[in-house]
Amino acid sequence: MPIGYQERPLVPLDVGDRAILRPDQLSGILAALRGRGYTLLGPTVRDAAIIYAEIAGADDLPVGWTDVQSPGSYRLAARPDGAFFGYSVGPHSWKATFHRPEITLWQAERQGDGGFTIHEPAPETSRVALIGVRACELAAIRIQDRVLLDGPFADPHYAARRRDVFVVAVNCTEPGDTCFCASMGTGPGVESGFDLALTEFVTDTEHLFLAEIGSGAGAEVLAEWPVDRATHGQIAAAAARTQAAAQRMGRSVDTRDVKEVLARNLENPRWEETAARCLGCTNCTQVCPTCFCTAVHDLTDLSGRTATRVRQWDSCFDRSFSYVHGGSVRRSGMSRYRQWLTHKMSFWADEFGSLGCVGCGRCITWCPKGIDITAEIAAIRAADPS
Q: Which of 19, 136, 202, 376 could lock onto 358 through a cystine, CB 3.0 to 4.6 A?
């Protein structure tokens, strides 16, 4: 705790309480998390984008930067203020933190007597604090949990990495042109799944954060600081900023019976029209925070002494993804695009109890052809004979 803070009494705080932080206090909280053994993962500027990476503290956040997005376009722009979280979402999602792009499942080594031994790496554990998690991303993490953690066949690698996580969420006040989380019911305000949730206020005269406590761990960290309780006016102002963001979404999806609409339009000519534009590059599935498809590959070294089985992210846009003996099940680009969208927005609900899209808009921004999932759903709905 910085010198001088001990002169003010600590305020007892509990789950659900809200307090006001200054930027230096937020920096201190991040330092306190590091002191508790957490690796900080958060947004930072790198390679002309806002990405998620290990950070040392608040100085590594994208202070004074925002992102400008549209279908097939992304760029950074300077902000006139010093906002820490004045952007929407970049190309990275938190998926890679828990559902790793590549892991080694096992390795076999030939022995001199003709036999072999198998080494199976233990699932990698981590103690991480996620900084700046948006509501749509928390929804995506919940979806990944249902797929990879819940049920009788949990992925041990995912489970190990999800075990000890501290979440500092951020209520979104800067939606992008391609965002549509409000219509998906996944944002822009966070409701659960966090330890601390921040709403940032930046004006000509002050820079503050309203912090909501979401867990006992969050209360414990925040209670180390002599913070002020938020007033009713400040709480209302924070809610108003989030509500205003919901009104400024660049896109929307009509989710009423969307599952049934897509299911009965599998032969709609719109699929062919869209597939004619699609490059099959897999960008949409790579940036999507909920896609979870993988493939398993066996590799051997040149000596033939070692064989390794690895699991890597894959995509339903790859023709080889649906390969079985005799060839691929989905041979056309149309069938692969249809599979992706209908699984995400229709059949996913049958498997996991919710739609598989959280409205983050990444698939629109990072599609080289600017294909817009919201426009595609609207077109199919408009042509729906029923």
A: 136
